[in-house]
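Our consortium's second objective concerns turning raw sequence data into structural hypotheses that experimental partners can test. To show how far this objective has progressed, the report includes one record in full. It was chosen at random from the queue rather than selected for favorable results. The single chain below, 146 residues long, was entered without modification.
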Amino acid sequence: MKKKLYIINGPNLNLLGTREPEKYGQTTLQDIKNLCLEKCDVHNFELHFFQSNAEGSLIDEIHKSINDGAGIIINAGALTHTSIGILDALSMFKGPKIEIHITNVYARENFRHKSYISPVATGIIAGLGINSYLLAIEAIKNLIGD
């Protein structure tokens, strides 16, 4: 039986491919999902890939993962730096949680240097472009074993 892996994406990530391509590249969120599906097939994960611009929807998705998720990969976008609600929801999930960012947030504006998610994240991957997603899948696989 496949273990369920949640990849949760926050605000503005639906515009990848056209949004600031000099920072984020030209790969779309659908392209990322397709790459993640391939990687999940290799590691026998059932992928649940989600994106929303609404904080409450992201929290609801995290709540769903509590009962059946093997791991969470989260790119909360700008909500990384503002959402105590996402922090609280993630703290209820007992499995591994990987916080990811396409860009190196520490090479950007100072307000991006603070993450409310990091205190409950098992690990953080930032600045490696879309490879951040694929590396996070590998990390979850290594953390849960099997």
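The partners drew two points from this record. The mean pLDDT is 93. The longest helix spans residues 29-42. Both points have been shared with the crystallography group to help prioritize constructs.
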